[in-house]
Amino acid sequence: MPPDPKPTKRAAAILDAVRRAAQQEQFLEVVSAAEARRRFAERIDRSPLGGESLPLAVALSRVLAEDVVAPVDAPPFDRANVDGFAVRAADTIGASPATPKLLVLNAEVIACGVDPVIEVMAGNATAIATGGVMPRGADAVVMIEQTELVEDDALPAIALRRAAVSGQFISYAGSDIARGETLLRRGTRIGSREVGMLAACGLATIQLVRRPRVAVLSTGDELVEPGRPLRPGGVYDSNGAIIAAAVAEAGGEAVPFGAFPDDEAQLEDAMRRALDSCDMVVLSGGTSKGAGDLSHRVVSRLGSPGILVHGVALKPGKPLCLAVIGEKPLIVLPGFPTSAIFTFHAFVAPIIRARAGLPPEAARAAHARVPVRIASELGREEFVLVSLIAADNGLIAFPTGKGSGAVTAFSQADGFLAIDALASALDANSEAEVTLIGETERAPDLVIMGSHDIALDVVVGALAERGFHARTIAVGSLGGVHAASRGECDLAPVHLVDPATGVYNKHLLAPGLALVPGWRRMQGFVFRPGDPRFEGRSADAALQAALADPAILMVNRNAGSGTRVLIDGLLRGAKPAGYANQPRSHNAVAAALAQGRADWGIAIEPVARLYGLAFLPIAPEQYDFLLVEARRDRPEVRQFLELLRDEPTRARIRALGMEPG
Ligand code: AMP
Ligand code: MG
User: What per-residue confidence (pLDDT) applies to 2?
Assistant: First the structure.
């Protein structure tokens, strides 16, 4: 069809937008990460902010601005540690059950808070409670259990059955905290223990480093505030929340500004307000090359010195933009969540920590073997998030396999490794240095690698209730088979049919591996309820209808998945429209159908139901576990196998629509 010579106004506007979207706005200049840091460091003040005097009640997690010197002793006096009697040790020499020593009691009982008045003279004792002030003359305390009261109306006494040494059961003044001692150093982050020490010294207000106020903004027309319904094409503003939390973790005070549409005027107004009221501004989104690249345009108008870096040769995180306005750092993070949080930790968190008075975070690293090849882009230093697994001969690092758009990649990773800008890949079985992130969680007790299933979460949850921590890494059935045969996991959940026999999973057995039955999941033909082309038909008839009409779009599955083997069996060589669309999970298939991107697909029943889709059963699929025999006797493996047979667990699996066994 020849192009319309006089396009309508609306069509012209659309074409204009398309042209703009296709235009590749170039980064000013892409620099190395080290160069980016250097330029930024040159222009910003990293010294701790001043101190402010605040009540102890708000001191938790804050940083001390000054050394704290103890103004008093703790305990403030020599203190009895047991209930008993204050005595002179010299009087007790030779005391034994056979030859008890008689000590005459003074007419005083020293309870807590009592200031004693009577001196303990030779041959005397004074009753004293735990925490009581030692009276003059006494140098030891004897336990009440070692004494017998000798009742005498005129002169009550005790018979002591054991000798005491000088200093026995006494805490001396200042033995805990000595007056004049430096109790806590500036830069210390205050936890509950520090709060206790400060209170013990009677300090009600302390000097704390003012926390840097960090404005957190997001931009994107698609962003929806958590708590509101997701509209079509919408995405929750997760960066705003994670960055605010990470600011607090780094010792800053996050000031959430919220999410803004990609509108330069609105964004500029918000950024100016943020610069006025805060010490630092962090914006995420609107920074990638191309149409949406408005953040750096806004930043370039805010003042001098302005943008120092726009484009860093690292992955993830290339579109990072570092600026200083007046004295204040302003950072634009890439919108993709993993990129955003990665660059936040690399470039922003260290500044917040420094200004908050905290020492730099000590980088913790571990050595690990990487069993798989990781491709990498030439010319960019690439950081790959990995999960760590303890193997017999050291640590193994597995890429988490989630792209920079993933929200979970960072939280599921134990660390990251770097691939040099000059390398195009990290070869399989390379040794690598892994920089650890987050709190060191204990190594998992059980490693499960293979195909993921929602019922697996039930078993792993039950395992957690028994105190075992399992890590599941979704690498697909075939990935699981490889991991199990290399001994990199304890169990590999698989569901692969042998095309020759139609039998599930048995053909995957190899020496050193056993097959443990899991559960059956019904696979079927899935479509939107009410679709007249499929409604009321059998699965087979629905499939024939789908194949007969070229306007009907399918959604396929990834090669290597058990479901794909089933699909190819059903299609017998046919490649209907949509065949090339190959998402990696049942959920993605269901979402494509529910949102109208495709008309039919093959998925398991529980997932189809979860998305409110219609389901026509085709065949049950067996989901089993390949067990690495060498690990069968580990207690956590035995627990897992026991849970597979446990009736309450099986009932919960059944409730999800699976049939155990
Ligand atoms: P951008 O940097 O604006 O081009 O965004 C790149 C990608 O990150 C897009 O898929 C955005 O939807 C996503 N993204 C941007 N901002 C956020 C945010 N605040 N929360 C979650 N995802 C975001
Ligand atoms: Mg955007």
Answer: 47
